[in-house]
Write a structure and sequence with these properties.
Layout (H helix, E strand, L loop, with lengths): L3 E11 L4 E9 L2 E6 L6 E6 L4 E4 L1 E6 L12 H10 L2 E6 L11 H14 L3 E7 L8 H7 L3 E5 L13 H13 L4 E4 L3 H14 L4 H7 L2 H18 L3 E3 L5 H12 L4 E5 L1 H5 L2 H7 L12 H12 L5 E2 L31 H12 L3 H15 L16 E5 L4 E2 L18 E2 L2 E7 L2 E5 L2 E2 L15 H5 L4
Parallel strand pairs: 1-4, 1-5, 6-7, 7-8, 8-9, 9-10, 10-11, 11-12, 12-13
Antiparallel strand pairs: 1-2, 2-3, 5-14, 14-17, 15-16, 17-18, 18-19
Helix pairs in contact: 4-7, 5-6, 7-8
The chain binds zinc ion.
Zinc ion (ZN) binds next to loops.
Length: about 450
C-alpha cells in the first residue's frame, strides 16, 4: 500500500527562507513530509525534474463579476485562469456583482456560486459603502476576508464611494471587528475636477487620461485614509499602489507602528503609460499605468521590500466596453485583464533584478495568508495545505489568445514573453492544471473564511 496520495520528487522547493532540492509527500490534501530522497511510496508520483516548486499563489484582488455580470468573467473561467497562472486561492472583490457584496445575504449568495463553480479555493471581500455600515458585523460574522471601500468613483453606480462620515464610522466598526479595510486610494475631488477640466477642453488622449489621475491624487487619498485610521485604529490595506509618493506616506505610517499593508500589481511593474499610448484601452486602469520614470521607481521600491504583497487586480470586461471603435479612452471601461500572470511577472522581475524566489513566495503566498488569517495556506511546510505552483525556467512562454484562460481574450499581456512557464498547479493535493490544460473534472475549491472567525464555524451549513 502506498503511504501517501502524492509524492512530488526532484523539485527545487521554495521554502520560507531557502530553496532546497527535496521531495514532498502529500496525504489528504496536506503536506506531510519535505525531505531529500524520500524512500516512501505514493499512489501517484511526479517528477518535477528540477523545476521550482512555489507555494500556490494567493491572489487577494480579482473582480469576477458574479452574480449578475458573469458575461464579464464569472467564477468558472476566472478560477481556471487563476489555476493556469499557478494560483490556488483568490479573493473576489465586492463591487462588480449584482447585487454587490454589501449585505450578509449577498455574501452568502455569492459564496454558494463560488462553491459550485470555483476550481481553486477562494475568499470573499465585503463592501463598505454609504448606508451599509450596519451590515459590516453580519458580514464579518459570516466570513468575509476583509472589507473594501473606494475613495474615488468605483465605476459602478451600485457601489458608491465612501464619503468621510461613512469612512470614519466604517473604520471604527471594522477595527472593533478585528478586520482589515482595503482601499482604492485616489482622491475623488482631484480626479473628478480634473476630468471636468479635460472635458471642457474636449481633451481625451492617453496623456489627458493620465493627467486626470496624477500621482498627487493617489498620495493625497493615502494620506487622508491614514489620518482616519490613526483616529479610529482601523487596520488598512492599500490596493494597487502605483507611485513612490504614496509608498513614502505608507512607509512613514508603518514606521509609526500603524497596522498597514500595501500591494502593487504586475502591470505597474512590467508596463508603463507608453503602453496606453500604443495599445489603447486594454492598458487603461485606475490608477493609470505611470510614466517609465515612475515605473522604474516602483521596481526599485519593490526591490527594497516596500510592498507587502502583489495582486493582479484582474478586472476584465466584454471587449465592446473597451470601446475599440470610438477610441474614446475616457469612456472605455478601466481595468487590466491579467489574473493569470502575477507569479510569472514576479519571476520575470526576480530573474532580471536578482530578487530571491523566497521573496517572490512571500509576496504571492505567505504575506497574503498571514495578513488575512489563512493558517492552512501560504507556505510549503509540513501540516499546511498541499498547494503548489510548479514553474519551469527552462522554457519561455509567450501569451496569446490561445493560452489565456480568461473569458475575454483581449489583454495588455497578449504578445508578452515570460522567461518561465507554469507547468503544473496543485491545490490541496489535486492537480488542477498541467502543461497548458485544465483538469476539468478536478474537485471544486472551498470558500475560505479567516481562521479566527468562530462565528463562521457555527453556520457553515448555510
Ligand atoms: Zn480592483
Amino acid at each position: 500500500m502506498a503511504q501517501y496520495d502524492l509524492l512530488l520528487r526532484n523539485g527545487l522547493v521554495v521554502l520560507p527562507d531557502e530553496i532546497k532540492q527535496a521531495d514532498i509527500a502529500v496525504k489528504d490534501g496536506k503536506i506531510m513530509k519535505i525531505a531529500a530522497n524520500l524512500q516512501d511510496t505514493g499512489k501517484q508520483e511526479l517528477d518535477a525534474d528540477g523545476s521550482y516548486i512555489f507555494p500556490g499563489m494567493i491572489d487577494i484582488h480579482v473582480h469576477f463579476n458574479e452574480p449578475g455580470n458573469e458575461n464579464w468573467e464569472g467564477f468558472e473561467t476566472g478560477s481556471k485562469m487563476i489555476a493556469a497562472g499557478g494560483g490556488t486561492t483568490f479573493f473576489d472583490m465586492p463591487l462588480n456583482g449584482i447585487p454587490s457584496t454589501v449585505t450578509k445575504q449577498a455574501l452568502l449568495q455569492k459564496s454558494k456560486i463560488g462553491i459550485q463553480k470555483s476550481l481553486v479555493d477562494f475568499g470573499l471581500w465585503g463592501g463598505l459603502v454609504p448606508g451599509h455600515v450596519e451590515d459590516l458585523k453580519e458580514m464579518a460574522d459570516s466570513g468575509v476576508i476583509g472589507f473594501k471601500a473606494f475613495l474615488s468613483d468605483s465605476g459602478n453606480p451600485e457601489f458608491e464611494r465612501a464619503d468621510d462620515t461613512t469612512l470614519l464610522n466604517g473604520m471604527k466598526e471594522i477595527a472593533a471587528l478585528g478586520k482589515v479595510l482595503a482601499l482604492h486610494s485616489e482622491s475623488a475631488a482631484i480626479t473628478d475636477w480634473l476630468k471636468v477640466e479635460k472635458e471642457k477642453q474636449g481633451a481625451r488622449t492617453a496623456d489627458d487620461y493620465l493627467e486626470t489621475r496624477p500621482v498627487l491624487a493617489e498620495a493625497e487619498a493615502v494620506g487622508h485614509a491614514i489620518a482616519f485610521a490613526k483616529l479610529t485604529g482601523c487596520p488598512l490595506h492599500f490596493v494597487h499602489i502605483s507611485s513612490e509618493a504614496a509608498i513614502r506616506k505608507i512607509e512613514a505610517a508603518k514606521q509609526e507602528g500603524m497596522d498597514i499593508t500595501a500591494e502593487t500589481c504586475p502591470h505597474y511593474l512590467l508596463f508603463s503609460h507608453e503602453d496606453l499610448t500604443v495599445k489603447g484601452a486594454v492598458a487603461k486602469c485606475a490608477p493609470p499605468l505611470r510614466k517609465p520614470e515612475e515605473q522604474q521607481k516602483l521596481i526599485q521600491l519593490l526591490r527594497e521590500g516596500k510592498f507587502d504583497m502583489i495582486a493582479s487586480d484582474h478586472s476584465p470586461c466584454p471587449y465592446e466596453l473597451k470601446d475599440p471603435a470610438m477610441h474614446n479612452l475616457f469612456e472605455a471601461w478601466g481595468g487590466i485583464s491579467g489574473g493569470q500572470f502575477t507569479l510569472l511577472s514576479l519571476i520575470e522581475l526576480a530573474v532580471k533584478y536578482d530578487i530571491p524566489f523566497t521573496q517572490v513566495a512571500k509576496w504571492t503566498a505567505e504575506n497574503p495568508a498571514n495578513r488575512f488569517k489563512l493558517a492552512e495556506k501560504g507556505r510549503i511546510q509540513e501540516g499546511k495545505d498541499a498547494d503548489f505552483a510548479i514553474v519551469s525556467l527552462k522554457e519561455a512562454y509567450t501569451i496569446s489568445k490561445d493560452n489565456f484562460f480568461a473569458k475575454h481574450k483581449e489583454s495588455l499581456y497578449i504578445g508578452h514573453t515570460f522567461p518561465c512557464k507554469i507547468s503544473m498547479t496543485i491545490r490541496r493535493g489535486n492537480i488542477l492544471y498541467e502543461n497548458g490544460k485544465i483538469r476539468e473534472k478536478a474537485e471544486r475549491g472551498k470558500w475560505l473564511t479567516p481562521q479566527d472567525n468562530t462565528a463562521v464555524k457555527a453556520h457553515t451549513a448555510v
